[in-house]
Write a structure and sequence with these properties.
This protein has 14 helices and 31 strands. By secondary structure, the protein is an alpha/beta fold. The strands form 8 sheets. The chain has an 8-stranded parallel beta barrel with strand order 10-11-14-17-18-19-22-23, surrounded by 4 helices. α10 packs parallel to α13.
Length: 611
């Protein structure tokens, strides 16, 4: 069963309202306008739902729900909050937009090159509409999927999106529902899929009125972010349906191609049928109905392969998940940092194991956690892992929000790009990394309640200090903090930034044109490494196609003895080449058996077996 929560406009100025409120005795729709207010009593139906169909309700009508004849609250499933989280909800006609993507069949997940962006800082305007003129640039780069950080309505006009309190509503400062549809439609016209980040583990602290309607939360657990959502306590069926229907709402109403599930380790429940498993079933059923595949990806810090396993094998059936181990292993090799969870990494072995298996920690002792951590992902296919050198978390949870471009050399940036884009996994880029943008991505908010703002300031500053992050904490509520985080698009035209952009573009072209790189298969590769010399070499193959990838994480020149290499190889990429603003390559254009290779510091080199 999929419930149409909220206002469902039926045409001819008729609208159906549905809300789940199992413990209330009286509930009405309060229509508000400049001229008058109209109260429309709702009727209880089965299992805690209330419903009414009313005439004289045109699109754009503002309304509240009136609870027990006194309390006035916005719709928990509001589709639009034009004046923010504390004001009236608005009726939206979902059938008026003229879609032109009928022939769109999607992008297979294993073919995606994902570009994560934050709507508010991606452009100077910070809107859905302002993204559209930039899509051609992303297309030229080779991007075929954008991933939007959460856009569900949050308090104020600037936020990462993880403080959302209306899961069905489009953030009003980003644009209208139709403007989001126009963005998705434009993406599909250019052959770009759209992934949406959704948050089903908590709701934000301001404007969160759900508890006034019923037991949407439970006190059984003690999560980090606010109260736990009630997925397994009394009345939990209605709560589960609220969020399960929300997932399908984004896929159906806005033609979203995939959902990224935030921090699933913070979804607390005990039961025979996990919420994630039920969600995967719903999305698969929806895919079959629509005749094309929709996807679920997830963030999880548990290194639990059950997330990825199909349901018949005891898994949740999620299509892919972010692989933090890959990032951590790569980051520490490039930066040498050892604070917080980075203390568990630093060896070439960690990154090499991630290339081979996905997870690097598969039951080994973690010094950071002070316990054994993870389970083996060796049997999970390569196309179930999403890897990255940067993302919003790994940049934004640094006290200064500093990007990799401010931490390492230009050569190391190219090495990071090669490590991600030439991997056997699904690559993800964080907005601006492709040209080395230096703008920070700090934590920012725009709450309206001074005590809440001060509490968040203190909490976040304490978090950063506990993690050993150096620097002065930028005020998350300050406008300057937010504006400093906007991308500097003009940098793309400057010499080093332009060369880096072209380097990323070339890597993506190689990934798509060489069969051995295009085929995502952990079992069709050999990974070797040298801890002392700090190099990792990888061979990958598919049929007759074969590549040889060398990555030098050493700050010094190292020698790699390629005496086991058979056949003749042609060089396809060398980050040290002057073409890429390198110091000049010492490697030959072609290799024969018995060659000895001298690798420049922080370089990535790719050879392809000649026919």
């Amino acid at each position: 069963m999929t419930v149409k929560f909220g206002s469902n406009y039926l045409g001819s100025d008729r609208c159906e309202f549905t809300v789940w409120a199992p413990t209330l005795q009286e509930l009405s729709v309060l229509v508000v306008s400049q001229a008058e207010e109209r109260l429309i009593p709702m009727q209880p139906v089965n299992r805690g739902y209330w419903n009414v169909t009313a005439d004289g309700i045109a699109p754009g009508t503002r309304y509240f729900y009136q609870i027990e004849n006194s309390l006035k609250r916005p719709d928990p499933a509001s589709h639009f909050q034009p004046d923010g989280v504390h004001s009236a909800s608005q009726v939206v006609d979902r059938g008026t937009f003229s879609w032109t993507d009928r022939s769109w069949s999607g992008i297979p997940l294993e073919h995606m090159v994902i570009y994560e962006l934050h709507v508010g800082t991606f452009t100077p305007e910070g809107t859905f509409s302002a993204i559209i003129p930039r899509l051609g640039i992303l297309k030229d780069l080779g991007i075929n999927a954008i991933e939007l950080m959460p856009i569900a309505q949050f308090p104020g006009d600037r936020n990462w999106g993880y403080d959302g309190v209306y899961p069905y509503a489009v953030q009003n400062s980003y644009g209208t529902p139709d403007q989001l549809k126009q963005l998705v439609n434009s993406c599909h016209q250019l052959g770009i899929a759209v992934i949406l980040d959704v948050v089903y583990n908590h709701l934000g602290p301001e404007g969160n009125y759900m508890r006034d309607f019923g037991p949407y939360f439970t006190a059984k657990y003690r999560p980090i972010w606010g109260d736990a959502i009630n997925y397994d306590d009394e009345y939990s069926d209605g709560v589960r349906e609220f969020f399960l229907s929300n997932a399908l709402y984004w896929l159906e109403t806005y033609h979203i191609d995939a959902l990224r599930l935030d921090a699933i380790q913070a979804i607390f429940e005990v039961g025979a049928r996990p919420l994630l498993q039920e969600l995967a079933d719903r999305v698969e059923e929806f895919s079959q109905q629509q005749g094309r595949q929709f996807y679920l990806t997830a963030e999880s810090d548990l290194n639990d392969p059950r997330v990825l396993r199909p349901k018949p094998l005891g898994g949740y059936g999620i299509n892919a998940q972010w692989c933090d181990d890959f990032h951590h292993g790569l980051h520490v090799l490039l930066t040498g940092e050892s604070q917080a969870y980075y203390q568990d990494y630093g060896k070439c072995e960690h990154l090499a194991k991630s290339y081979r298996e996905g997870f690097a920690y598969t039951g080994e002792y973690s010094a950071f956690r002070k316990r054994r951590f993870g389970a083996s992902s060796e049997d999970e296919p390569a196309d179930r892992f999403i890897v990255f050198a940067q993302n919003h978390d790994q940049v934004g949870y640094r006290i200064m929000g500093d990007r990799l471009s401010t931490l390492v050399s230009f050569e190391a940036l190219k090495l990071a790009a090669g490590a991600v884009l030439l991997s056997p996994f699904i690559p993800l880029l964080f907005m601006g990394e492709e040209y080395g943008d230096r703008a920070p991505f700090c934590y920012f908010i725009s709450h309206s309640e001074p005590p809440l703002i001060q509490a968040i300031r203190q909490e976040k500053e304490a978090e950063f200090k506990a993690a050993g992050s150096p620097g002065e904490f930028p005020d998350p509520a300050g406008l300057k903090t937010f504006y400093n985080c906007k991308l500097n698009w003009n940098l793309r035209q400057e010499e080093s930034h332009q060369h880096l952009w072209k380097f990323y573009q070339h890597l993506i072209q190689l990934r798509r044109s060489i069969p051995a790189l295009k085929k995502l298969d952990k079992n069709r590769q050999m990974v070797d490494w040298d801890e002392k010399e700090r190099w990792i070499v990888i061979q990958r193959w598919d049929g007759e196609s074969r590549i040889f990838l060398l990555m030098n994480f050493n700050e010094k020149t190292v020698v790699y003895p390629a005496n086991m290499l058979e056949g003749h190889w042609q060089k396809r990429l060398d980050s040290a080449a002057e073409k890429w603003m390198g110091s000049g390559s010492s490697l030959p254009e072609s290799l024969a058996p018995g060659a000895t290779l001298t690798l420049t510091p922080h370089s990535v080199v790719l050879y392809e077996l000649a026919e």
